[in-house]
Structure formats: C-alpha cells, structure tokens
Specification:
By secondary structure, the chain is an alpha/beta fold. The chain has helices spanning 11-20, 65-71, 86-95, 110-123, 137-148, 180-183, 185-189, 192-202, 290-302, 312-330; strands at 2-7, 26-32, 60-62, 76-79, 99-103, 127-130, 154-164, 207-214, 220-228, 233-242, 249-256, 259-264, 271-275. The strands form two sheets. The protein has a seven-stranded mixed sheet with strand order 8-9-10-7-11-12-13. A six-stranded parallel sheet has the order 3-2-1-4-5-6, sandwiched between helices. Strand 8 (207-214) and strand 9 form a beta hairpin. Helix 3 (86-95) packs parallel to helix 4 and helix 8 crosses helix 10 (312-330). The longest helix has 19 residues, at 312-330.
Length: 338
C-alpha cells in the first residue's frame, strides 16, 4: 500500500484526492496546504471533477510543507501547487526520499526543469509531470492511430484552446496567472496542453514560428504558433483573452491521408472520426478519465511495473518548445529552434 501526500488543496488537489481514494493499492495519508480553509472551501475550475468532501478522518493535516516532509509517513508526494512552487517543492520531496507526481507545467522554463531532473537523478527517485491529456482516452486513441498508420500519414493538424482571462486568486487582488514570471502566461499554462500533444504525437519540431497579442499591461493573452515539420502542417492557438461570459473551448482537427479526426468541446458528439469510407463514428472508450489513468500509471511505475508512463524529460522538452514559441513571438514570428 503506497501512502500519498497531496500538497495544495485547490481544484486540482481535490481532483487528485477524489481519484486517489478510488485506487486500490494507494491511500491518501496526508494533506498539506498553507491555507487550511481550503479543506472546507468549495473550489472551482474547468470541469466538475473536484472532490468537494470535507471529512478527512484518518488523514494527517498540515499547513507546513517542511513539517509534513519531516513527520508524515508517506511514499508519494503529489504536488498540485502553483507553477512557481514546483521546483523547490519537488526538489525537497525528492531529497526526502519520496517519489513525486508534479502538476503541469513542470516549471516556468526549461532551465528550471533541468534542475528538477537533476534533483530526481541525484535522489534516485521517480518524478512524473501530470500532463493529463496524455492519459485522456481520445488522445491515447489518436496516438495509437498515428503510430499504427491505420489512416495513413497526418497531412495537417490544427489545435485551439480558448478561455476567459484567469482572474481567480486565493489571496484576492491580481491573479498570479497574469504574472508571466510566475505562471509563464497563456503560452505555458494553457497552450502547453496542445504543444505537448504536438510533441507527443509528432516529435520535436524543427523550429516554431509564433505571433502573439498583448494586453494593455504587456501580458500575452493570445499566441498562435506554426510548428515546423517536413511532412505536415501543424498549427496551434492558445487564448485566455475571451470575455467573462465565454465558456471554455478546446478543439483539434487532424487531417490524415485516409480520414479526418475532430475534437470540439462545443459539439454534442465532441470526438468524431470521419473515415475515407463509411459513416463518421465515435470510438468506444473506457469510463475512466485521464486523471484516474494518470494516477494509476504513476502508481504502477512506483511499484516497479513497467517503464515510466511519461518521462519528465519529455515534459521538460515541451516546456522548451514553449520557450521557443515565446521567443519567436517577441521576434514577430521569426523561426526559433526549441
């Protein structure tokens, strides 16, 4: 039985908590949040997957991360904190002999990610970054189709992710998301989901060309990128400048030689495959969502079953691509190698 500590108990912490409770072979043994009011607050986020329960009987509660590391009997530390806290918290947990699952994005830039990789190697512990889309049924299905060549090669791929401007902040005032030195901005916090899919499905691009829109205070709220490959056209858009009444939207279109695949969260049938012959269809998927599959895969890896389900080095390289995108945007679309 692996004992888990969840560090950070907002929307994502509660989402992980609800899933850990359902997994055989794991037990939430500790919860840590500097603001203990989080244990009774109702949380909000994209989706309704957060566990809103308030009965933590049998779970050690901490408001000090250092004290938790020193006292709590746990094997795994699950870090669901804001991005700027990822590097130091991850390094400390690894040094304390814990395996670490850390939320995305890994860190604000690839150089800082390298420090986290070094910490994991030095400690001899396992580190995985929770890029949840790699475990979502639809995206795993697409990966299998690409690798198998079932519908031929991909000719073109388009990705889009749109959100209202993030204004939530636990302490009130300006949201930390709008401080690019902390969140990495729209390119790293929102758009990286699609950048990571591009990286996972097609490998590292030769270079990227990006354009961006800046808000009045100079903060980027829209980025549009072309990922350069020799044999396909791949583009992606990330936007969190939509109006407050806007409902989050994600979409993608993949044009294969023998099929077209569409995902659009606005549609009733959000995921559809249009084969060269026959009627459009939606594949049958497991009822498990990506968060559950992600945690199960990490747990199995910590138990020595199989290879790493998602290498932290890959997460680092996805951040490096975003670094290149931001650099290209500052140079008005000049091609930049990741």
């Amino acid at each position: 039985m692996k004992k888990v500590a969840i560090v950070g108990f907002g929307f994502m912490g509660r989402t992980h908590y609800g899933n850990w409770k359902k997994i055989k072979g794991a037990k939430v043994a500790a919860i840590c949040d500097s603001n203990l009011a989080q244990l009774t607050n109702k949380v909000q986020g994209n989706g309704k997957c957060a566990d809103q329960s308030t009965d933590f009987t049998g779970i050690a509660i901490y408001d000090s991360f250092d004290k938790m590391l020193a006292e709590a009997d746990v094997d795994i530390v699950d870090i669901t904190l804001p991005t700027p806290l990822h590097p130091t918290m991850t390094a400390a947990a690894l040094k304390a002999g814990k395996d670490v699952l850390c939320e995305k994005p890994m860190a604000v830039d690839a150089k800082t990610c390298d420090m986290m990789l070094t910490a994991a190697k030095k400690a001899g512990r396992k580190l995985m970054i929770a890029q949840c889309l790699r475990f979502q049924n639809e995206h795993v299905w697409v990966k299998d189709v690409i690798d198998s060549g079932k519908y031929g090669k991909v000719k073109a791929a388009e990705f889009g992710r749109y959100s209202m401007t993030p204004g939530w902040s636990a302490g009130g005032g300006k949201s930390w998301f709008l401080d690019e030195s902390k969140s990495g901005g729209v390119a790293l916090d929102l758009h990286i989901h699609d950048t990571d899919l591009v990286h996972w499905w097609f490998g590292m691009p030769k270079a990227v060309c990006s354009r961006a829109h800046l808000m009045a205070d100079g903060v980027m709220d829209h980025i549009s990128t072309t990922y350069l490959y020799d044999d396909k056209v791949v583009t992606g858009i990330g936007d969190w400048g939509c109006s407050p009444t806007f409902v989050f939207e994600a979409n993608m279109r993949l044009v294969f030689e023998k099929a077209t695949i569409v995902l659009d969260t606005r549609r009733k049938d959000a995921f559809l495959v249009y084969p060269e012959k026959g009627k459009p269809f939606t594949p049958k998927f497991s009822a498990e969502d990506g968060y559950m599959r992600e945690l199960k895969a990490f747990l199995a890896w910590t138990n020595g079953k199989g290879e790493a389900p998602f290498c932290a080095k890959e997460a680092r390289d996805s951040v490096a691509i975003v670094d290149a995108e931001k650099k290209s945007a500052k140079q008005n679309g000049k091609a930049v190698k990741a």
